[in-house]
Design goal:
By secondary structure, the protein is mainly alpha-helical. The chain has a single domain, classed as Up-down Bundle (Formate dehydrogenase/DMSO reductase fold). The protein contains 15 helices and two strands. The protein has helices at about 5-30, 30-35, 40-50, 55-70, 70-80, 85-100, 110-140, 155, 160-185, 185-215, 225-245, 250-270, 290, 295-325, 330-335; strands at about 275, 285-290. Helix 1 packs antiparallel against helix 7 and helix 11 (about 225-245) packs antiparallel against helix 12. Keywords: Cell membrane, Electron transport, Heme, Iron, Membrane, Metal-binding, Transmembrane, Transmembrane helix, Transport.
Amino acid sequence: MDLAYLWFFIVGFFFIGYFVLDGFDFGVGMSLPFLGKDDTDRRVLINTIGPIWDLNETWLIVAGAAMFAAFPEWYASMFSGFYLALFLILVALILRGVSFEYRHQNKGREWTKWFDRMIFVGSVVPALLWGVAFANLIQGVPMDADNNFTGNLLTLLNPYGLLGGLTTLLLFFTHGVVFVSLKTTGDMRERAQALARRSGAVAILVAALFLGWTIFQHLDSPQLWLILTLALGAAVALIASWLFNAVGREGYAFAAIALTIVLAVGTILSALFPNVMPASNDPANGLTIESASSTPYTLNLMTWVAGISLPLILAYQAWTYWVFRKRITREAILTSAH
C-alpha cells in the first residue's frame, strides 16, 4: 500500500480515538446541568473523568501533529480556512481544562457555579463544531486554485454542516451519560440511565437523518458499498446501545455507542476518500491524498516512529483506564471533603 494512503487511515484512526475518548468527556461535561442536582453530584460527575480527561485530549494533539507531518497541504488548508471554528474549539477546550482545575478552590458558591458553566460551554462548543467541520469536509467547501478556503464561519454553518454538528453533539452527550451510569452507583446511575434513554432516542433519529443525507450525496461514489456498510453498522450499534441501556447493561451500552462513533467516523472517512479536502466550486481546486501528502522519505520515517510508539501509547492508555476502573460514589466524595 502507498504510504500516503496508509497515513490517511492512521490520521483517521487518531481522530476516531479522539472522538471516542474525548467524546464521552464532552458528554459528561454537558450532563452537569441535567444530572448535577447539587455540588456533590457535580463533583461525582467530574470525578468520573477526572483522572483521564487530559489523557483523552492528547489524541487531538497527536492527530493534528500526524496531519501536519503526513499531509502538510491538508493541514494548511483546513487549519487556515477553518481558523475561526477551530479557534473557538481551542478556546472552549482551554476554558474546560481550566475549570476542572480551578472549580474546587473553595472560594464560594458563585465561583464554583461559574466554572461549572464554563465546563458545560467548553463541552458543547467542541462537540458541535467538530461535527460541523467534518460534515463540511465530506460535502466540500469553496476553494481557490491555490487550495485556499474562500468562505468563512457562516459558510460552514449550512444545513448539512449544522446537522452534522447536532449529530456529534447528541452522540457525545449520550456517550457521556452512558459513561456516567457505568462509573457511578445508586440514584446517579439510575438517573443517568433514564437520561441516556431519552437522549439516545433523539440521537438515533438525528444520526439516521445525517447518515442518510451523507449516503444520498455520495450515490455515485465508487466505494458506495463501503459507505452503506459502515453507515448501517453505525445505525445498528446505536440502536443496540439504546437497548442495552434500557435493560441496565451499561457496559455493553458504552461499548456499543463507542462502536457507533467508530463506524460513523469511518463512514465520513470512506465518503471523503480519496480526497482529503474536496472543493465544492471546482473539483480541480480540491486536495487529494496524493496531492496533499509529504515526501515518501518523510512518510517512511513516520511509519517507523508510529510502529514503535503507537503500541506503547495504547498500552499506557489501557493501563490508566484499568487503574481508575472503579465506580465513583457520593459517599467517597463526601468523605474526601472532610
